[in-house]
């Protein structure tokens, strides 16, 4: 178990292959390496007879200035090596996203930073917001594009290759709370109880959809124009072109349970419902994509 200063707690964590990337309230960006060993592998390395040639040990040890912590499960041992800590921001980091090549962080200092995963080098500092960064999305269709929102209602779309702002719009009266993208649209949800649909390439507003009884600001695209969102205890599939719901999936009969989080998988979503987790699958979509 890794323990740091309790006054500088983690605000976001991402897993990238065998690496863990985390950001803190003190503005730091930290990298950890996970090594996983089975009991048989550890026993073999301990009981292996000595030879004249030095054998490379499987277990890594911490270098000077680093720390090594061990977590044990029933059959495996996980060792967490603290690799490096970078001072990314001067204020708390509020968002963290990655696409496998880049790491992007956003902070209360109104800035975003782009780091290259390969060598953990800072590539760009992105300026364009005039309030704390509240949400961030890296497109999976075009991994070189990202979109960010801030507390002052500004939406910015970025080119991560050049570090330039493609466009920025005043998207909401209040903070931008969630963003997602499709092949043609950038979609945002804000504190003004609206979902706004923007042209992906030019930033023109195409639709503004009023919403109510929303407790979750996670958005996900099911298809090119179908958006997954939530309303109280239901999952809603919405056509962003018309602004009309196409399908509403009720998760239960209780009016007290609400959806507060959505996690998108390949052909389904996982959401909370009270004290339970619910999985809603969309097999027809996966079949069409295949």
TrEMBL record:
Subcellular location: Endoplasmic reticulum membrane
InterPro entries xref list: Beta-prop_SCAP, SCAP, WD40/YVTN_repeat-like_dom_sf, WD40_repeat_CS, WD40_repeat_dom_sf, WD40_rpt
Residue ranges of every copy of the SCAP beta-propeller domain listed in the record: 6-280
Matches recorded under SMART domains: WD40
Membrane topology summary: Multi-pass membrane protein
Any single Pfam family the record assigns to this protein: Beta-prop_SCAP
Example GO molecular function: sterol binding
Protein name from the UniProt record: Sterol regulatory element-binding protein cleavage-activating protein
Organism: Schizaphis graminum (Green bug aphid)
Gene: SCAP
């Amino acid at each position: 178990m890794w323990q740091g200063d309790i006054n500088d707690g983690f605000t976001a964590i991402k897993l990238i292959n065998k690496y863990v990337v985390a950001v803190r309230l003190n503005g730091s960006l930290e990298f950890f390496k996970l090594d996983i060993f089975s009991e048989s592998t550890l026993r073999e390395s301990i009981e292996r007879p000595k030879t004249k040639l030095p054998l490379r040990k499987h277990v890594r040890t911490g270098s000077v200035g680093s720390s090594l912590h061990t977590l044990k499960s029933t059959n495996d041992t996980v060792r967490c090596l603290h690799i490096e800590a970078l001072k990314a921001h001067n204020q708390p980091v509020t968002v963290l996203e990655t696409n496998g090549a880049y790491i992007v962080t956003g902070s209360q200092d109104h800035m975003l930073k782009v780091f290259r995963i390969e060598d953990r080098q800072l590539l760009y500092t992105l300026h364009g917001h005039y309030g704390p960064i509240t949400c961030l999305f890296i497109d999976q269709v075009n991994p070189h594009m990202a979109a960010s929102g801030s507390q002052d209602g500004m939406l910015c779309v970025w080119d991560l290759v050049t570090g330039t702002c493609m466009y920025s719009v005043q998207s909401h009266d209040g903070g931008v709370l969630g963003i997602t993208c499709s092949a043609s649209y950038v979609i945002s949800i804000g504190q003004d109880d609206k979902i706004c649909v923007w042209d992906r390439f030019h930033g023109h507003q195409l639709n503004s959809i009023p919403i109510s009884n929303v407790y979750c600001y996670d958005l996900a695209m099911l298809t090119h124009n179908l958006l997954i969102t939530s309303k109280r205890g239901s999952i809603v599939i919405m056509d962003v072109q018309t602004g009309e719901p196409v399908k509403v999936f009720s998760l239960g009969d209780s009016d007290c349970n609400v959806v507060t989080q959505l996690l998108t998988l390949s052909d389904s979503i996982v959401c909370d419902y009270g004290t339970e987790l619910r999985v809603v699958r969309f097999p027809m979509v996966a079949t069409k994509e295949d």
